[in-house]
Amino acid sequence: MRRLGHHRQHPKQLGGGFKAMVGRLSIAVVVLLICTISLLVSLPHTGNTPSGSRSQINLEELWRSAESGGWRPSSAPRSDWPRTTIPPPAPSESNGYLRVRCNGGLNQQRSAICNSVLAARIMNATLVLPELDANSFWHDDSGFYGIYDVEHFIRTLRFDVRIVERIPEIRKNGKTKKIKAFQIRPPRDAPISWYTTVALEKMKEHGAIYLTPFSHRLAEEIDYPEYQRLRCRVNYHALTFKPHIMKLSQSIVDKLRSQGHFMSIHLRFEMDMLAFAG
């Protein structure tokens, strides 16, 4: 008689998931090796090539900072940007408060912070200090305060957008009341028109909105150059790490430099790498 209900699992079946994972990992390694070999093969072979037909590279100059050649940094505002003459909106002139939750990896969250500043500028809103996702992978609850210099962030952007650390309480009819932000899930790569219509309408209705998640929620391609320069200003000037992080990172770099020139490479070697990176 065949016993129903209980089937003994063979060791071969139990190890199926592990073997499948190893198989996928092996395929990824093979693909990476093939790409590396193809790249090396495609490089011009200079062993027997006449010196006149190949580009001369000065290795010492390669490691030096290049001259600007008169180019201005992308983060520098131009004359038509109302920055020094027109300050950011006062509380009475602001359309409301903008809260965002930056999700994804560290680089995605940094990009989301840049977009949050731009979104606040577009909507003439007051930006609440962005929230960082701490529970997805590394379970680190440091938050914005524990990673970035908050005072420097607010001071650097004081002519571009008004930033507060939290939504203030309001007094109405002799009572203290908290403003509850209306939660919205923005579409991916949302155009500026979405922020000036859908998001702004809800902000004016509720006084504050909470955009979550906020990774890749503002289009990268924007025609107005000053908006792109504002993104650069946030990324390269406003966002600075806290002193103890800067000190530790500088000591690591100094040790690497003591051994000579070095390069750092982010392999992005995850199981779902191709799904997101192409």
UniProtKB/TrEMBL annotation:
Pfam families associated with the record? O-FucT (PF10250)
* Record-level Gene Ontology MF annotations: glycosyltransferase activity
Keyword Membrane (UniProt): yes
Positions in coiled-coil regions: none
Localisation per UniProt entry: Membrane
Principal subcellular localisation of the protein: membrane
Q: Report whether Transport shows up as a keyword of the record.
A: no
Pathway assigned to this chain's UniProt record: Glycan metabolism
Q: Which UniProt keywords apply?
A: Carbohydrate metabolism, Fucose metabolism, Glycoprotein, Glycosyltransferase, Membrane, Signal-anchor, Transferase, Transmembrane, Transmembrane helix
Q: What is this protein called?
A: O-fucosyltransferase family protein
